[in-house]
Design goal:
Blueprint: E1 4-7, H1 31-36, E2 39-42, H2 58-71, H3 75-88, E3 92-96, H4 98-107, E4 118-122, E5 138-142, H5 147-156, E6 171-175, H6 184-187, H7 192-211
Parallel strand pairs: 1-2, 1-3, 3-4, 4-5, 5-6
């Protein structure tokens, strides 16, 4: 069992400076928890053939984006996510970017384990979701200057939750600015202050659940 279940977003195979998909799913600030077994990274990224400059190519980034968009629609991947959730019995699910859409797709068919106390979307690449199927708190951290999500919104002509929060009382949205690194969308998982903010939100929610 792991307290935190971490679902990464798009493009782990084409992150600049990383030669391959990281085993931690890019959640570097959670490395200590991952190594201790207190956090579990669900690594679902597709591999992609790389040359020296492939990761810098917008064409290759777009191709992988389309491939992973199709992949998160598959029953095979959703079934794997569900089974690993059952195995880990986490208290908290943290879903980043396209990983949030993967979770939403999965919950259209499967039910969360009863162990899960809250879900946190981080810069979610989700534009529409029926949250009524989930009875636990859902937190949504967003930042309107996320360039990666603006690119996604232009491609799909739809604005994701990670840029502008949904008008949905079931989803509690909080602005959290992105300040670290040149790839601000991804570098939040190298920012200890961002992690601390997430854990504070989790503590507030779980304390309220325990008091109720």
């Amino acid at each position: 069992m792991s307290k935190y279940f971490l679902i990464h977003g798009y493009g782990q195979a084409l992150i600049v400076g990383m030669p391959s998909i990281p085993q931690n799913g890019g959640f570097y600030t959670f490395d200590q928890e991952i190594h201790s077994g207190n956090a579990y990274p669900f690594v679902w990224a597709l591999t992609y053939p790389r040359g020296q400059f492939t990761a810098l190519s917008l064409i290759h980034q777009w191709r992988l984006y389309r491939q992973e968009q199709q992949y998160i629609q598959t029953i095979e991947l959703q079934n794997r996510l569900y089974n690993e959730l059952l195995e880990q019995q986490p208290q908290v699910i943290i879903a980043h970017s396209m990983g949030a859409q993967l979770l939403c797709n999965t919950l259209s068919t499967y039910t969360l384990p009863t162990s899960v106390q809250c879900i946190i979307f981080v810069q979610a690449d989700v534009h529409r979701w029926d949250a009524s199927q989930v009875s636990i708190p859902i937190l949504n951290l967003y930042c309107w200057w996320d360039i990666a999500l603006w690119s996604s919104s232009l491609l799909k002509l739809k604005t994701p939750y990670g840029l502008i929060p949904p008008q949905n009382q079931q989803i509690q949205s909080y602005f959290r600015g992105l300040y670290r690194g040149w790839n601000k969308h991804q570098d939040i998982w190298r920012d200890e202050r961002y992690k601390a903010d997430i854990l504070t939100r989790i503590t507030q929610v779980t304390d309220l659940l325990e008091d109720s």
